[in-house]
Design brief:
Number of strands: 10
Number of domains: 2
CATH class of the largest domain: Alpha Beta
Order of helices and strands: HHEEEEEHEEEEHE
Distance between the termini: 103 Å
Strand order of the largest sheet: 3-4-5-9-8-7-6
Oligomer: single chain
Length: 205
Amino acid sequence: MAKDNSSKTIWIIVAVVLGVLIIGGLIFGFGIYYLYKAGTAVVASPSPTTNLQTGTLSSYANARYGFSLKYPSTFSAQESQNGDGVTLSTSDPKMTVRVYGSNNVLSQDLSEYLDWVRNNLFQEAKNPESAKEILTEDTTLGGVPAKERQWTYIDSITGILTFVDQVSALKNGIFYNLQMEIAFSDNDEFSAHVFDNILSSYKIE
């Protein structure tokens, strides 16, 4: 009788040990599978912010006006038909950066030229009286004294309140310009950082 009880006890212990091993193996297996899937998801879906701020850079050089710059490779680039510059754009967030040169045919100084740019923007506004200038300050562009202006206006096509940041310099009868346009609701430290990086790479021959 004692021998039978001993055998039963041994079989119970073996069954318990096997059960623990099987359950532990299942838990471990599911854990590894979950970590694998999570890791795959992170690799497959990098954040747009990481791409735009730390991704590889592309270069652009303008032969007509003699300037160059670098920009995130995640932006698309469209050269203008008359060769005066390039339009850089991205969809997340939707942002457009126009980089161009223009001859000073009206013999304007920087302030007069930027007033002219502002007036053209405001004429396109759906509600011109809502257009505002929110910043004006001195800066540099490619080592040349420049001015920065920031405006908001309502886009006549989309009806969206739009933020515009423009930096312009005047050298040897040529205006050198960078202009960022983005929905006001999307304008934040991120977009400013991307624009500043493009500005800091800008060079004038």
